[in-house]
Amino acid sequence: MTTQSERTPTPAMQRYLEVKAQHPHAILLFRMGDFYELFYEDAVVASKAIGLTLTSRDKGSPNPIPMAGFPYHQLDGYLQRLVRAGFRAAICEQMEDPKLAKGPVKRDVTRVVTPGTLTEDSLLDPRESNFLACVFPTKDVCGLAWLEVSTGRFLMADLAAQHVVDEIARIRPAECLIPENSRELPLIQSLNQMSGMLLSDRPPWSFSLEQCKRKLLEQFQTRTLSGFDIDEDTPGVTAAGALLEYVQETQKSGLGHITRLEPYRRGSSLLIDEATRRSLELTRTLKDGQREGSLLAVIDETVTPMGARLLGEWLSNPLTDATRITLRLDAVEELTTDAVFCRDLREQLQEAYDLQRLTARVATGRCSPRDLACLARTLALLPKLKAKLSGRAARRLIELEDRLDLCPEIRADIESALVDEPPMLTSDGGMIRPGYHSQLDEWRDLARGGKDWITKYQSEEITRTGIPNLKVGFNKVFGYYLECTAAQAEKVPADYIRKQTLKNYERFITPQLKEYEEKVLRAEGQAVQLEQELFNALRERVAVQAARLRDIAEVLAEVDTLAGLSTLAVRAGYCRPQISIEPVLDIREGRHPVLDRLKPSGEFVPNDVRMGAANVPIKANGADAQAGLAASTADYPTGLMQLITGPNMAGKSTYIRQAALITIMAQMGSFVPAAAASIGIADRVFARVGASDELGKGQSTFMVEMTETARILNAATKHSLVILDEIGRGTSTYDGISLAWAITEYLHDVTNCRTMFATHYHELTQLTESLKQCTNWNVAVREDADDVIFLHKIVPGAADKSYGIHVAQLAGVPRAVLERAKIILKTLEDDHLDDSGKTKVPARRTQQKREFQLALFADEEHPIIDELRQLNVNELTPLAALQELHRLRQQVK
Questions:
Q1: How many Cβ atoms are within 10 Å of 747's Cβ, its own excluded?
Q2: Dihedral, CA of residue 734, residue 736, residue 740 and residue 741, to nearest 10
Q3: 510 Cα distance to chain centroid
């Protein structure tokens, strides 16, 4: 005897197995009636991952099939859990009404949901972009493409392999596609170690250049990509085409909102590597990786999801073009000086819906009647917004007003078709406005009239039978029926046909009732079907206009972002920075943008930063403020390098971080937390401000520190801004001092960039005597007997004490330990200082004709080595060899 599991599977299970074979790497959600069912390994995995109850099918057989499931209306909730757990989900729907099906119900996958292809608001954070990326590594160049399916933003780039990780860190995709045979490449292994991103393998044929180009040209309906300023024969185009194929494969619908491919070129924005983004907590905190507490969260005053996402993009991609920065600052300034204008704009924008994601759902055929109504309400705001933007002085506001397309015909089409408050589901009916379609009105009247007849019929039958509690009921099994209590059943007329007997009730039907039931149900069914057809036609007409709607959404997002930055400037007391192309960083009374807003008002101690050319003109609000700033900082030293000394907990790290954050804010087009500021445009910002062991990579704290430092020394240019905190502390004291000393000299002599170096190595303060662009600064401390008070004020000059033992005392270290530490400290200091109190580190050597310093991390060799290689010793006499040796020796003295 064969068991059920050994017998031929049922038609439904046979179809399940066929579909699962087509989607082996996804959790298959198989629609069966009012439930989505999962079977076999999918059921076991999902039960553990998202808390479904695990049961089994064919329980009586020796090999029952594991099974789990949930009601169809809970789909979004379980999808969210699956995606957050890192799974893909294939949704297999019933493609026909089971009542009308002839044979097995047709089922097919309508969509594959992955972390990078979400479009539903319920599955997405409205304030953040959700990118899907694709990396295509080649021998020389790597192709990178990224797309936000929920808005249609699509970009590509061709990059050197060493830059890909930094760009992925900037984009923060939820999912990244890679060739399936590339897992062993060092680049892919680095990507695999990045948290919060799913790596998805794609077959080799997905990366055929010709196929990828064809996919892109078909999507954009063009003959060439040159109109997008893109070279067609590059790895970036291959990555973009492979990404588009994946989206088409998973979405299984139109993608009309993806209307262009934007080229991205490094250098058009401020470059910030992964370690620096993490250290500065631009969009995520170091502690828990959350948005709250980051710079982005603190400066976000936007009122729309579109604006919030654009603000995040601006912060992740600060500009390097002074003209574009100035355009943004001009717009923010005009909004700042006209409070009524800014307030009115924000009040209007608060009523807008997320037009970017609404447009995407329309274009992919997943919008609801309510989505279209929200789209129309947003379009209804545009005339007032356009009127408010007209007549502005700032060039960027003028450009945005000019781009604002009112789309009156789209709005009119939706408003004429849909009722004011349409339902969420098309199957509910009642979404098309009365008077919009005559045939629909006729069927509705017929259905309504049939119901009126049934009400009248019930009243007449009560009178005829004398059964006062007789009523007409309805269910999906029997349709309309007459019901009375069992005690009254003997009074029913002979023409009543018994249909069902319950415990206390009897149910009957009559020929008349069935005749009108057929009319009513037919009319209702035809009305609902016609409504769905009318809605689908409306949705398709709107989808054709996706490109226009997307442009409108971009305008609304930028207006919201600019107005938000203006509101931030007013509420937090920010100033407009002056933008310079010179390597200057002159900040008066600057504040850390995060701590300044999180601490009680007035508690944060402001500080100046003076780097670059002396006497940079600074604009302050009012003549008195201008004079006060000039007087208060007139004698401050300037230079390209600051050495900041002082105790722990005194504010050194905060000081250097706030300088970097203020630079980034200025270059994104924001006002900054300072009384006045002049910011020289940086091409890169590097931050080495703390490291942690990366045991998964087999790297210690010190190795991470040195790797990041090497990167700075090799990549920084004279236009970069470098902030360093406690370099060398992960090794022995003398090793650490030696490295810090050499690194400082290299940044000063070779890189020659703006550098802020916070250190405990007081020996480094001597470097100001030999490095002309180096200045000493320290954190002011007030001593009172044995107590130490940190004033958190950065002042010129070197700190004369470390106060490390005082900090240990504040931390509660036992007194005996503290006293012993003082004795040891005195001994160590006496040992490595000369009679004048200076360190015994020898001065660096220079040549008369050109200065040369041995590089710490670079590959460059000393020029004497080159001369030795060029000597032909076989042609030299012994005397000539001695003379040559003497000459070379003289060069290194």
A1: 25
A2: 10
A3: 64
Closest CA to 725 of 756, 753, 683: 756
Q: Cα–Cα distance between 686 and 278 in angstroms, integer?
A: 11
Q: Are 534 and 417 a contacting pair, CB within 8 Å?
A: yes
Confidence band for 105, pLDDT divided at 50, 70 and 90: confident
Helix ranges restricted to H, 317-423? 322-337, 339-350, 355-363, 369-380, 382-389, 395-403, 408-417
Which residue would you say has higher pLDDT here, 623 or 229? 229
Spatial CA neighbour of 208 closest among 239, 176, 177: 239
Is the torsion defined by CA of 824, 830, 833, 838 positive or negative?
Answer: positive
Question: In whole angstroms, how large is the CA radius of gyration of the chain?
Answer: 36
Q: What is the pLDDT of residues 437-472, one digit of tens each?
A: 999 988 888 777 667 788 888 999 999 999 999 999
Long-range contacts of 471-479 (CB under 8 A, 24+ apart): 472/513, 473/507, 478/507, 478/509, 479/509, 479/514, 479/517, 479/521
Element (H, E) at 783: strand 774-784
The stretch 199-219 carries a mean pLDDT of 94
The mean pLDDT value for 277-300 works out to: 91
pLDDT of amino acid 848 = 42
Mean pLDDT of the chain: 86
3 state SS of 307:
helix
- What are the DSSP calls for 477-520, one per residue? TTEEEEEEEGGGGGGS-TT-EEEEE-SSEEEEE-HHHHHHHHHH
Q: Residues 179, 207: contact at Cβ < 8 Å? A: yes
Contact 89, 135 (CB under 8 A): no
pLDDT digits (tens, 9 = 90+) for 145-187: 999 999 999 999 999 998 999 999 999 999 999 999 899 999 9
Confidence (pLDDT) at 331 = 97
Give the bridge partners for 55, in sequence order. Answer: 67
| DSSP string of 34-100, one letter each residue | TEEEEEHHHHHHHHHHH-PPPEEESTTSSSPEEEEEEEGGGHHHHHHHHHHTT--EEEEEE-S-TTT
Q: How many CA atoms lie within 13 A of 838 on its CB side?
A: 10
337 CB-side CA count, 13 A: 11
Give the mean model confidence (pLDDT) for residues 818-824: 75
Residue 243: C-alpha distances to residues 99, 118, 206, 214, 247 (Å) = 40, 14, 9, 13, 6
Q: What is the pLDDT of residue 840?
A: 58
Band the pLDDT of 67: cuts 50, 70, 90: very high
In whole angstroms, give the CA distance from residue 466 to residue 488.
9
Per-residue pLDDT tens digits for 719-773: 999 999 888 766 667 788 888 889 999 999 999 999 999 988 888 888 988 899 9
How far is Cα 188 from Cα 169, in angstroms, rounded to an integer? 14
Token representation of residue 652:
């050194």
Cα(677)–Cα(128) distance, integer angstroms: 30
Among candidate residues 307, 168, 278, 129, the one with its CA nearest the CA of residue 660: 278
Question: Distance between CA 89 and CA 751 in Å, rounded?
Answer: 51
- pLDDT at residue 891, as a whole number: 67
Tokens 């209804």 correspond to 380
Per-residue pLDDT band for 103 (boundaries 50, 70, 90) equals confident
Neighbours of 298 (CB within 10 A): 20
**How many Å apart are CA 392 and CA 3, to the nearest integer?**
80
Neighbours of 850 (CB within 10 A): 7
Longest dimension (CA), the chain: 141
Alpha-carbon torsion (258, 259, 263, 269), positive or negative: negative
Q: Please, which residues have CB within 8 angstroms of residue 711's CB and are 6 or more apart in sequence?
A: 273, 275, 686
Spell 534-564 as b/e; 16+ CB within 10 A means b.
bbeebbeebbebbeebbbbbbbbbbbbbbbb
